């Protein structure tokens, strides 16, 4: 088997994309805003999973962001004046809402859905496949069967009697027709089967818990998740372990905010050095646990030891970053 047959990590990363709505280029309402503002919209929309992981959801279940201008400058690779201009542009066309939360509290930023008109659909779909009412026509092979003759024209094209872009399809389908109901309760599996299932979920966690195209992706590099998988036995233990790390980050952010009086967000999945440091800290933790075991000494609470180790590391990383920024600003 040749080396060319394998997928490479860099190749897979290169195939990930940001989603930039076409309507931003077809609707006259948005044609006046800059391409920088349109790209910023795509970047912010890509951060929805990050907002959900941080529970940035208001009482109406609306997703928002908490970003200082400094953090937006880093995210958008822009200067302060440009970030302010981009926010004003998005706000002026109803794509961004800034909600003030009070004195010394960061604003909540809401990304809003773009308006879509029938003319936008015409421009986004090949005109030969759109009739005069704005309905999309889907061409089926001549062998297609069970199609009502009332919905087929002489060309063999099936006309959809509603606008696919503006109206959602009916997803209320009974999936249990002629099928057995699925029940994954542990009572339906033997202990050996459960063991195999857990082994598979744990050993492959780094594949399905991380990545650009993973819903609710964990903010860790795959190596970190893979390392944890060597030391836990079940998906429950994996979730518990990850939860301790995320709680340590959350609490150190709260401590720093209390000390400095300004909001702090440690964005793990966009900081390669931070990611490497997390993995190294975990290896030190596991090494301590193994050495303690070999010397017949016992740490009373491995969970507390992990929490303290990670919280101390996050604090160290934040202080080192701020020290570097202050040094650069003074030069």
Tell me about this structure.
- The protein is mainly alpha-helical and 331 residues long.
- Helix content is 49%, strand content 4%.
- The protein has 14 helices and four strands.
- The chain has helices spanning 9-14, 23-26, 28-31, 35-45, 48-53, 69-76, 80-92, 118-124, 191-203, 205-208, 222-229, 235-260, 272-294, 302-330; strands at 96-99, 108-111, 137-139, 157-159.
- The strands form two sheets. The chain has a two-stranded antiparallel sheet with strand order 1-2.
- Strand 1 and strand 2 form a beta hairpin.
- Helix 11 packs parallel to helix 13 (272-294).
- It is globular.
- The N and C termini lie far apart (55 Å).
- Residues 125-179 have low confidence and may be disordered.
Please sum up the structure shown.
The chain is 49% helix and 4% strand. With 331 residues, it is mainly alpha-helical.
